[in-house]
Amino acid sequence: MSRPGSTRAERRARGGLHQLPWRNLTNPYAPIKVISEDQVEAIHQASLRILAEIGMDFLHPEGVSLLAETGCAIEDQRVRFDPDWVVEIVGKAPARFTLHSRNPDRNFSMGDNSISFATVASAPNSSDFDGGRRTGNFADFTNFVRLGQHFNIIGLFGGYPVEPIDLSPATRHLDCLAAYVTLSDKVFHAYSLGRGRILDALELVRIGRGVSRETLSEEPSLYTVINTSSPLRLDGPMIEGLIEMARMGQVVVATPFTLSGAMAPATISGALVQQNAEALATIALVQTVRPGAPVMYGGFTSNVDMKSGAPAFGTPEYTKAALAGGQLARRYHLPYRSSNACAANAVDSQAAYEAEMSTWGAVMGHANLVMHAAGWMEGGLVASFEKFMIDVEICQMMSEFLQPLEIDDGAIDAIAGVGPGGHFFGSPHTLERYETAFYAPLISDWRNFETWQQAGAPTAADHAHRRWQEALAEYVEPEFDDTLRAELDDFVGRRKSEGGVG
After folding, report:
1. Are 351 and 342 in contact (CB under 8 A)?
2. How far apart are alpha carbons 380 and 338 in whole angstroms?
3. Which of 330, 335, 317 is nearest to 371 (CA)?
4. Is the pTM of this model over 0.70?
5. Measured between alpha carbons, how far is 286 from 178 in angstroms, rounded to an integer?
6. Distance (Å, rounded) from C-alpha 6 to C-alpha 17?
7. pLDDT tens-digit profile of 55-72?
8. Which H/E stretch holds residue 414?
9. Which domains, ranges and CATH numbers included, belong to the chain?
């Protein structure tokens, strides 16, 4: 089957780097069930018991007040939930919704069997083979945005790929979100670090799309990740962001950060119970603010290294938790978020096999959103340009894996034409498919040892280093209406003159 823009001849004609076309991906396979339906129900019931008997702390008076109005039991900041009410209110969340970009061709569905890959997010450091490991900065931030825009396999941005520490914290979000609007035409994320940043983000995404507030309220165009402060707490800035996002009908991804043995019980099943309780409580608050507001069930349960206490990712435990998280999300008929994560400190085999393990867990757990799909290193402490390319390769291979297997009606004739003992390299059947027969890799090197050695014995990481620079050279900034650009600049300038956020 021909892939538009993907053949060798087409790549040579345009002088560009090979990549797959933009796709609204769907997952045709049955999800892997790592626990039984009875065990899913047991986790559900245990979660409701935790919320009813232990409760969860909401560290903001507005969040507590909203839940008090529903009849929840309140003791200072501790909220206890009636199980039947939790089930009812969570059931108001939609099973699917569409995220809208300023480029309508980049809209995509969340829910059912859809799947989309997002960039790495929130790393305080960046790295590449030339510049080494360094503190996050705005130049690296914008280069990651350009790479995320350039590669079709990247569906959306998962937050700041790297934190630009060189910008003022009070106005950093204005520069970063404006860069998303101008350097890309894909959906992006805003951090729920208080009310002010979210209100600014809502206005920036509205300007970028050129729509009214009423239209924005009915067309989700921005998303945020709400992490609980496990165990069983939701902090004030997150609550403020959640409330403003829900009021405007934007997407909240409820994601407990439950590391088994550290912030959750030292068994994956126990951590899943806690994850589920915290997710349900967070989703309940979203639906209290605005019934029917789009929300996603997020899973980020993993284990820690019991010798050092450091987070471990891409482990068998992480993968099983990702699969189970998908089962729990489907239990509540909610879209599901998972992640590609690794704990490797170098762009090496550990980085690759942990990323592959994580991605398989997300794909076969039927995640609709795969966060940190490209560039994550050191347990999230580094955004790596070379790792970005290796992950793009992994995601593109997954995209091909998700395509239907075609039945070749001409295979018997081809075999008859070659006959016993022949080969198919020169057969018409092969030559007709020479350009499109198989996936053409970005960084894999399939030469034999002798020719590979003559070429300087490049590793996959060497290829990745070259490829991300080639991709930056090929990047083309998407068109943006001059009137909207002026409005964007005016808003950013005014907010900066006001001092941004405190």
Report:
1. yes
2. 14
3. 335
4. yes
5. 27
6. 9
7. 999 999 999 999 999 999
8. helix 411-418
9. 90-401 (3.20.20.480)
